[in-house]
Amino acid sequence: METLLALDQALFSVINQDLSNPTLDAIMPYWREKTTWIPLYIVIIVFAFRQWSWKVALSFLLFIAATVGIADQVSSQWIKKSVERTRPCKAEALAEDIHLLIPCGSGYSFTSSHATNHFAVGIFIMLTLLKNKSWRWLMLAWAGSIALGQVYVGVHYPLDIFVGGVIGSLIGYGMVLGFGFLVGRLSFGV
Question: What is the pLDDT of residues 111-126, one digit of tens each?
Fold first, then answer.
């Protein structure tokens, strides 16, 4: 376990310090903010209502809300409070070298709720709404880049985002199955 944590800290230093540059320093604090993505969320809502009947589209939106709620609850309330891993921006060993671009935050580090939530939503949208495979991969890249941004700005370790991404993906996939079951049972007619 010590080897894994040492590797995690070393990879954190590479992403947070060695890859830092003025362009990413300007972009990443905004890139990882949920309000930055409001235009994307609006496009997804419009696309859902154009693709499906209003019943299916409304169910889709309710499932997205449930997906975020479940993912956030699992990450923030269950895992973080059980593991209690200190954020890298609060770690004494990194204090002198950390490249912190946003306020550190008061919570724990493991798992990253940003990673969990965005991968859950990304997988859900990717497997329900998007038929085009290129767009599907863009959803994964979107979720991954937001998760990686958490390491870049100095508030999470790579292991936090990796495990958060895996958990979020599993939650997203479970919600896809639930959505498919609901749509099939209620005969909404996709």
Answer: 999 999 999 999 999 9
Task: Read off the pTM.
Answer: 0.91
Angle between helices 113-128 and 133-152 (to 10 degrees): 180
Give me 155's structure tokens: 């508030």
Burial 13-32 (b: 16+ CB within 10 A, else e): bebbeeebeeeeeeebeebb
Torsion on CA atoms 79, 71, 136, 132, rounded to nearest 10: 160
> Angle 54-72/38-51 helices, nearest 10 degrees?
140
The CA distance from 27 to 182, in Å, is 39
Interval 43-86: pLDDT, tens:
999 999 999 889 999 999 999 999 999 999 999 999 999 999 99
Residue 99 CB neighbours (<10 A): 17
Taking the C-alpha atoms of residue 148 and residue 101, their distance in angstroms, rounded to an integer, is 14
How far is 164 from 60, CA to CA, in rounded Å? 23
Distance from C-alpha of 38 to C-alpha of 43, rounded to nearest angstrom = 9
Instruction: Give CA–CA dist 126/169, Å, rounded.
Output: 11
Contact 172, 66 (CB under 8 A): no
When pLDDT is cut at 50, 70 and 90, the band that residue 187 belongs to is low
